[in-house]
Amino acid sequence: MAGSFVTVQCPDCENEQVVFSKASTVVNCAVCGTTLARPTGGNAAVEGEVTETVEAR
């Protein structure tokens, strides 16, 4: 089953960034560097708030 892209809001600077829901690497905020998502072997553990699903497959 394929993953999807989600928009995640950074808990520190409130920047919104698009992240793959099954990220295989650590995803950091492009503005402040805070970790937004960590790989877990399946769906990524999202640290910020998921505001919307951009593309579902």
Automatic annotation (TrEMBL):
Q: How is the cofactor bound?
A: Binds 1 zinc ion per subunit.
User: Which Pfam family is one of those matched by this entry?
Assistant: Ribosomal_S27e
Listed GO molecular functions? zinc ion binding
* Zinc finger residue extent: C4-type: 10-32
Q: Where does Zn(2+) bind?
A: 10, 13, 29, 32
Lineage top rank: taxon: Archaea
Spell out the InterPro entries in the cross-references: Ribosomal_eS27 (IPR000592), Ribosomal_eS27_Zn-bd_dom_sf (IPR023407), Ribosomal_zn-bd (IPR011332)
Q: Where is the signal peptide?
A: none
Key words of the record = Metal-binding, Ribonucleoprotein, Ribosomal protein, Zinc, Zinc-finger
One biological process GO term for this chain?
translation
A Gene Ontology cellular component where this protein is annotated is: ribosome
* HAMAP family attached to this UniProt entry: Ribosomal_eS27 (MF_00371)
Per UniProt, subunit arrangement is: Part of the 30S ribosomal subunit.
What name goes with this protein?
A: Small ribosomal subunit protein eS27
Q: Which organism is it from?
A: Halobium salinum
